[in-house]
Design goal:
- The protein has about 170 residues and is of the alpha+beta class.
- It has a domain of about 120 residues: 3-Layer(aba) Sandwich (Aminopeptidase), CATH 3.40.630.30.
- It is about 30% helix and about 35% strand.
- A seven-stranded mixed sheet has the order 1-2-3-4-5-7-6, with helices on both faces.
- Helix 1 packs across helix 3.
């Protein structure tokens, strides 16, 4: 199964809410997302993404047959890191293990490298999030190391991994 990435639409809110009402997904994301994740929460997120600075935030729905089944975003850093961006993503659980994450990551990285001056995209998954690490590896990212005791999630001190993908030619 393959997917497409596209800009968010406000009518994606019910699908986004359904996908994010899953503790397994929340346990692998950064804090700040409400749980349960309501349609109103989804509408607020989509509105924020649509109104964000288009040179700093590149946010997309991951879709199958135009239905949102996940989210992917690339977020430009600033100052001396202005040509570096962080990537984050998730897929609704019914679609896990079907290659959608890898496909979406490859698509969005190609888009970023082709349409912006960003030269480095990185991700910091929790070290025990094997599925996310595999998505990054299959997408060409290189593990640069382990960030020991880099986060606290659900009251537990967690290691994270640093992955990056660097644009080959400028």
């Amino acid at each position: 199964m393959d997917c497409k990435i596209r800009p968010w639409r406000i009518d994606d809110a019910p699908c986004l809410s359904e996908a994010l009402n899953n503790k397994k997904i929340h346990d692998n994301l950064r804090d700040g997302l409400p749980f349960p994740y309501t349609v109103r929460s989804a509408e607020e997120f989509i509105t924020a993404m649509l109104n964000s600075d288009k040179d700093k935030t590149y946010a997309f729905a991951i879709t199958i047959d135009d239905k949102a089944v996940g989210s992917i975003g690339v977020f430009r850093k600033d100052n001396i890191h202005q040509r570096t961006a962080e990537i984050g993503y998730y897929i609704a659980e019914p679609y896990w293990g079907q290659g959608l994450g890898t496909s979406a990551v490859k698509q969005v990285c190609r888009h970023i490298f082709d349409h912006t001056d960003i030269i480095r995209i990185y991700a910091e998954p929790f070290a025990d999030n094997i599925a996310s690490c595999r998505i990054l590896e299959k997408s060409g990212f290189v593990c640069e190391g382990v960030l020991k005791k880099n986060a606290v999630k659900n009251g537990k001190v967690m290691d994270m991994k640093m992955y990056s993908l660097v644009k080959e030619k400028e």
